[in-house]
Amino acid sequence: MNWDDVRIFLAVARSGQILGAAKALGLNHATVARRLTALETALGSTLFTRKTNGSELSGAGERFLSHAEAMESAMLAASASSGADSKVEGTVRVGAPDGFGVAFLAPRLGQLIERHKGLRVELVPVPRTFSLSRREADIAVTLERPQEGRLVARKLTDYRLGLYAAQSYLDRHGAPADLAALAQHSLVGYVDDLLFTQSLDYTGEFLRGWRSSLAVSSAMGQTEAVRAGAGIGILHAFMAGRDAGLVPVLPQHSLMRSYWTVVHEDLRAIRRVALVAEFLSEIVARDRAMF
């Protein structure tokens, strides 16, 4: 059995498409399809049901997936222990919540690239979860410590959230005297059914029955809406606290959440991955007062 064929199998299984896997691997569509056929012939099984809109794992494919991932883990471990990955080069993908990713990480990752010219970092700052087992990211910044899976988690920092509004909004509507008075104001919050983690379900900690007049499914979007005067919102202090266009509302009331870095157990010994994870800890520790 050819390891390269197994690697291609994993890419197709994770992307759900031959074309998507081909792009990720830097191969053409025909080559990926041909190598998959060769693997299926070698195994004597059909691994995928190929459809016009993608490729789904067959029963045999599902069973083979665990063996393929075990082979991948062994290859990664061998690479790390042999020193083949001693040079800091290659690509590391970091998945992060949009507020932390855009407002904090994006302006600072250039420092890492300056130190290591052979390193390429892909930052994916979107409000969603990332599957490390499916290699959607090499490192994920999460809002909760994972409770299952072969994952290694490390706490980055606690961070504070508080109520903010634009001065223009407060000039028009005045400031609430207490939390109960928030019910008389326009409120900016999340789209409830798009919350990707329970850690984001915090409006009730400020006002039971919180009803958003404007709901935005990202932290950056909420910040922009509040800055434009749409209402009072619960914003990240490390973003809103440094924005002259935003005013704290009832600052005696706030709540805390945490960020974690999570790496798949198979990748933590890969030098470039470990280096990026350490850099995230470094810059957060350096700027911890922001949070």
Describe this entry's structure for a reader.
The termini are far apart. This protein folds into three domains: 80 residues, Orthogonal Bundle (Arc Repressor Mutant, subunit A), CATH 1.10.10.10; 99 residues, D-Maltodextrin-Binding Protein, domain 2; 100 residues, Periplasmic binding protein-like II (D-Maltodextrin-Binding Protein, domain 2, 3-Layer(aba) Sandwich), CATH 3.40.190. α1 packs across α2, α1 crosses α3 and α1 crosses α4. The chain is elongated and about 70 Å long. The chain is built from ten helices and ten strands. The model has no long low-confidence stretch (mean pLDDT 89). The protein is of the alpha/beta class and 291 residues long. Strands 4-3-5-10-6-9-7-8 form an eight-stranded mixed beta sheet. A two-stranded antiparallel sheet has the order 1-2.
Main traits of this protein?
alpha/beta, 10 strands, D-Maltodextrin-Binding Protein, domain 2, single chain, 24% strand, 291 residues, Arc Repressor Mutant, subunit A, two-stranded antiparallel ribbon
Secondary structure layout:
Layout: H1 3-15, H2 18-25, H3 29-43, E1 48-51, E2 54-57, H4 59-82, E3 90-96, H5 98-105, H6 109-115, E4 119-125, E5 139-142, E6 151-166, H7 167-173, E7 187-189, E8 214-215, H8 219-227, E9 232-236, H9 237-240, E10 246-264, H10 271-286
Helix pairs in contact: 1-2, 1-3, 1-4, 2-3
